[in-house]
Design goal:
Strand content: 25-35%
Helix content: 25-40%
Bound molecules: adenosine-5'-diphosphate
Length: 233
């Protein structure tokens, strides 16, 4: 595919996000410029407080910029109606967080089905079972999440979102609570989703080791992009 001719998945132009709580103003993003092309795996790195979660909330359409433009596939997401944004989030964007992606009262099988539905596609219990088997958790389908390790839970959460075949996977510190072995397993699954399914991935982290998985690393500091580099693929 000729990337130069393809439409960007995201185009951010001079994006500013200011939080106002009581009398306190916090400028979380100070003029972000960012383009994400289809099929890219972009890692956004930065210390705690640099604006990563704020950026991800804008990309998912759960938040709007104070100024500037956040475009998603040509649509001005920041100014789109709530219903339109919810539809896009529900059909095209899959989101995985640091924790609590799964519901404690549901079985792993039910959780995979629900994660897929929330990311835009209903899957049968047979497909959910297959998805669990593909990540080595086929025999855990009746278990509650609390019976599994943090890494297993995160892999199931990614597998559930992947089952919906979203255009975009947004990941917010998804390995933040994991040891390095579990972390690598979760990242391998995200990497596979990117390579095999062609899913566009934006992953935010403060862990520089994760940069190795990226096509491109974007560094944030105090709400600004301070550096980016394309990595050899
Ligand atoms: P990161 O994800 O890199 O840790 P955040 O995007 O969470 O950074 O936060 C960026 C800045 O915005 C921080 O100074 C944080 O305290 C502030 N912030 C984040 N969310 C809110 C909020 N809801 N209200 C007020 N300030 C916030």
């Amino acid at each position: 595919m000729d990337l130069s001719a393809a439409q960007a998945v995201y185009e951010l132009r001079d994006v500013i996000r200011v939080y106002r709580e009581a009398d306190v103003e916090t400028i979380a993003l100070r003029g972000i410029e960012l383009t994400v092309m289809p099929g890219e795996f972009v890692v956004v790195m930065g210390r705690s407080g640099s604006g990563k979660s704020t950026l991800l909330n804008l990309l998912s359409g759960t938040d709007r910029p104070t100024a500037g433009r956040v475009s998603y596939r040509g649509l001005d997401l920041g100014r789109a109606e709530d219903e339109r944004r919810a539809t896009i989030r529900g059909r095209e964007i899959g989101i995985v967080f640091q924790s609590q992606n799964l519901f404690g009262m549901l079985s792993m099988l039910e959780n995979v089905m629900l994660a897929a539905r929330l990311a835009g596609r209903s899957v049968s219990s047979a497909e959910a079972q297959q998805r669990l088997e593909a990540i080595g958790l086929g025999n855990r389908s009746r278990h509650r999440p609390s019976a599994l390790s943090g890494g297993e839970q995160q892999r199931a959460a990614v597998a559930g979102v992947r089952a919906a075949e979203p255009k975009v996977l947004l990941a917010d510190e998804i390995t933040g609570e994991l040891d390095s072995t579990s972390s690598a397993e979760v990242l391998r699954l995200v990497d596979e989703t990117h390579r095999r399914d062609g899913t566009t991935v934006v992953l935010v982290t403060h862990d520089s080791a994760i940069a190795a998985y990226a096509d491109r690393v974007v560094k944030l500091r105090d709400g600004r992009v301070v550096g980016g580099m394309a990595l050899p693929v």
